[in-house]
UniProtKB/TrEMBL annotation:
A Pfam family per the record: RVT_1
SUPFAM superfamilies: DNA/RNA polymerases
Organism from which the protein derives: Caenorhabditis japonica
Name the record gives this protein: Reverse transcriptase domain-containing protein
Domain Reverse transcriptase: 197-461
PROSITE patterns xrefs: RT_POL
Top-rank taxon: Eukaryota
Signal peptide (UniProt feature, chain positions): none
Stored InterPro entries: DNA/RNA_pol_sf, Rev_trsase/Diguanyl_cyclase, RT_dom
Amino acid sequence: MYQDLVALLSILIDKFIPVKILKPSTKLHSSSIRKLQKKKLDIWRTEGNSVNYRALALLLRTRLSLEEKRITENLLCEGSSQHAFYKFVNSRWKSDEKIGILRDSAAEEDVTDDITKALLFSNTFSSVYTTDDGCAPSFSARTSQCLSSVNVSPHIVEFHLSRLPLKTNTTPEGIPSIFLKRTCTSIALPLSIIYESSLQYGIIPSFWKSAIVKPLHKKGPRCDPSNYRPISLTSSVCKVLEKIVRSEVTKYLNVNRLIIDRQYGFRAHRGTVSQLLSFQSALIGNCMKKRVTHNVYVDFKKAFDTVSLKKLEIKLQAYGIGGSLLCWLKSFLSGRNQVVCVNGTFSACSSVLSGVPQGSVLGPLLFLLYINDIGDNFKSNYLLYADDLKIFSHLSSDVQDDLDVLSNWCHTWQLDVAPNKCEHISFRFSKRLVPSSKPTFTISRTVVPYTDKIRDLGVHFQSNLSFDNHIESTVLNCHKRINIIFNVLRIHPPLD
């Protein structure tokens, strides 16, 4: 059914929607400049007017320069929105977003052509997948309530279609979101029928299980493919259904208070600021009592990509998700495939064996449910921002006990921790830290490195609770951004 609709829409797009490069609009120019442009064109078409043409061209360039200066001054001085200002700056900033030379560590050679780069990324992303160990851990029910189905109406479908971005994005079935948005009233009914059928029978069209993966650099050397995160570009049609399902599941979880309050990632009315305030409050409380706060930041290895699908099903059932909805989610996560796109070149198709797709709508919510019970047996305080975990207490023995509990949990649920990438910092009230106040922590018999400063959700913390490093870093970033703005706007910065 869906394949027939895609075929029909593809024919309509090819037949009635022209594909062309639009010239920049001149609507921003004043009427006087448009008159000069027309006059210049008329003189160009007339022989023997080269002198007048050059004079008029010079006048037009001067007027355009003044017009550009006026627009810039309006953006800078007249309270234009921040979004409009940075949109203007980014439109002028010529940056090369192409992926450069990569290093193939296995072959010990550099990779320069895009086809080999795409293959290297595909192999790198596939190497982290988890094969389920066949064990079914015991996980007791978290609620007596149940969510077994989701209802879809044409009105809801039209609402979500109308909120799609106006983008000609690449999707597996070749239907851009701008087309869905502009035709939302006409296609809402047939799509709602397809959505209802998919949810009722747990059948996912093959297009919805395919993804175009674009590597996104995280940190570290850009030549190392392991320093990139796979971002999946999935079907826009499927994303609409995902949003409907996510809305109902989120409402169910919130009503029954099934997501822990210590989780701040991917949740409405929560974010980095609220978590940092909660963390800072705990630090101040210990400092007022002249206690040292031992804090361990835990780093998971490719957490989103290594979720065991069979174990995720166990947890979904424990949270009351069952019936046709559970069947649909199982079908949505299994049998997926992807191709990697590098600079417009695609790799061969590969199977996705584990994990929740990054870039999908449901992926983050499913991961929150998977990691939701991680601190059930912790003695210490802890906070989560998606997969970023920090465990802290004034008792070092409690922190170590919790790290042992964490190791057992990770072994049971097949999520790996990178102990060498974890960090330990001790926040203190006094200016000097005595040796007994700086204990050693281990995860799976590996010592967690100690540091005197750490970056947590964008804020630089120091062990003495000074924010000097954060201030210096903020000032440095401001200087960098100001220089970018000056270069883009072609303004000379003041010598001071």
